[in-house]
Every structure is written in structure tokens, then in C-alpha cells.
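lol so apparently i was supposed to do this last week
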Amino acid sequence: MKVCLSTFLFIFYLPSLLWSQRCATVDFLSDQSRQNNVHFRDATIEIQVVFHVVFLNEDENVSAAELYSQLEILNDHFHRRNAKLDIHIPEEFRSVAASPNINFCLAKKDPSGQNTTGVIRVKTNVENTGCRKNSKTFFAMKTSLGGSDLWDPKRYLNIFVAQRKDCGFAQAVFPEQATDEMDGIIIDPKYFGFKTDNRPFHLGMTLVHEMGHYLGLKHLATGNNCNSDDGINDTPSQVGNYFGCPSYPQFSCNTSNQFMNYMSLVDDACMKMFTHGQVERMREVISNQRAGISFPCDTMESVNTDYFLYGNSQQWVIQQRENKEFDGELELYNSLGQKIHFRKVQGESRYIINKTDKILTPGNYFVLIKTKQSNQSFFFFISN
Ligand SMILES: [Zn+2]
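anyway here it is w/ zinc ion bound
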């Protein structure tokens, strides 16, 4: 009886106190439009990240080792090939467990094309930059407000490690809410990376959860009733969000609830899975609203054109930065200046070169894109 009572309190009572702390991202309730141009169903997607460490005190200036460990944690959970076999996921949910197949890496070039470590450090004298906002953005996202200016959020995933005193551990900007001045994720340094002394939020899962929001996912429950839902088919309806570490099973809305989902609000150690539907949603967002952040970790690109090149395991893609369709001609040259490929492009926002065609072998290339409006060109380097 005692056990039952404490479990009851843990799941339903304490949680209401913790609710605003774990994640401050507000579920975005409008109908999110979907387009059907998802090209790379199974291929690995790579995303370039810039960390802005905005620190007031030296202990908030997280070390490079902490940054790398957090990146590894992200990659681990966004790249789980064996999710379906994971015995830590209740058997009834294993069949819908899925890997987003997304790699995150530090940006190698800054917006002006200079080499970078992908980490910006700003010593601030402004308190609470991770919470404070003006009408347009968070202080952390603006140099003039004591933060660090966003790198073009259409091309970079900006993650701010900044003091959040009174607004929850972390917060993400949904794709639909993003502007040129406010985008990315803000996380308090205390909840960043692997920290053994910070149980139960010690495993770096706060950023994994926020990444889900940044890529368009909502909490499993978006209101306190069975009619509100996250819009994903294979996450069962539940009446509210779970906290702590509930024992399996938990029921509401006539379903067995998937409280161990990454988009639940449970403790770090109890977060276990994304579903197929969630993975599909995230990859749709990357193919559409956030198309520009997909960028191969080992390939050079031009930063001053309306186009860029990225790759996955099967294809190279020349992509219009804002996913706008264009009409024109595309010419590819090798390092000797020989034209090796030509193609007319009509009403497409991206041009795909299959790797099996072996047009782009390792080496330097030059691409020229001619449209009615302009001729643009850039060099790139293929390393593999
Ligand atoms: Zn959340």
C-alpha cells in the first residue's frame, strides 16, 4: 500500500511541480502543414551545429569535453539502429521504435566561410540571458543584449548554453515559430551533457528532448484530456504528461501509455525511444522548413550563394537554400575546368546526383547555376 501511494504521488503530484522545470517549450497547437517532398527515407541526415556558450560565471563556461560528450549523447540517441531489439523498451512498443538516423556535427565553416571550431564562447555580464526576452528574441541570441548573435538559422542549428534561472531547464523554437532572430535551442549549463551529480537529469537527455521539439515534435500529451494529441499516429493518446520514472504499464485514454518516449517528461534514465511516426515527422521538417541545416560534416561548401551542396549515403544534392523552386541550367566542372555534367532544371528546389552514377568522385569541383535572375557558382570538395 505504501509503495502504491508513493508511486501515485511521484507520478501525479510531484510532476506538477516539476512540469515547468523540465522543458519550457510550449506545445505549438496549430495544424502543421506537411509537404510530400521527403527524399531520403532511410539515408543518414547530417546537421551542422554551432554551440554558443554564453557564460556569466566561469563554471557555466562548459568545457570542450562536455560539449563533445553532449554531442555524442545526441548522436547516440538519434542513431539507434537496434531500437526494435532494445529490451529496455516494453515489448508492445518495440515494433514502432525507430531511429531518426541523424548525425550532428560541429560546423567547420562560419557564415563568412572562415574555419571554425563550431563553438563560440561569450563572457557576459548580463544575468539570465537564457530566459530574458525582448519582443523578438532571447537575450542569449543577441550580442547587443549580452548574448551571441545567431548564425544564419536557415543553415546552422544554433544551440545556446546559457543561464536559465526561472524558466525551465531548456527550451526549443519550433520550426513554425522560427525567425531570423529567434531560432535554435537554449539549455541551462547545469542540464547540459553528462553530469553524475545532477540526477535525475544527469544523462544529457534534456537536449535530446529539445531536439525533438526543434525538429517539430510535441509532447505526447498537449493538454489534460484525451482529445489533445501530438498529431503522431503511433504514440498512443494519454491524458497528461508523465514525470519521474513510472513503472510499466500505465494506462489512460483506454490505451497503454508510452511514457518512456523521448518526448515524454520523465527522468533522463527513463527516456528510451522515438517512434516511426516521430522519425517521419522530424525528417519531413528537415526536408522542408529546415532544409538548409542538413549539411555533410566532411564537405566544403560556398557560403555566399543561394545554393549549397550536401550528401547522404546515396546521393549528392545541390539545394536551393530556402527550398525555393528554380528554372535554369546547372553545369558541373572538375578541377581541370572540364565540364563533366550538364542538366536543365525546371521547377525544382534541389538537384540530385546519385552516388551510383559516379559523377562526383573524390576531388575538387566547381558548379555553375544559371537562372534568369543570376549566374551563381561555387567550389566544393568531395572527400569520399
Ligand atoms: Zn518539452
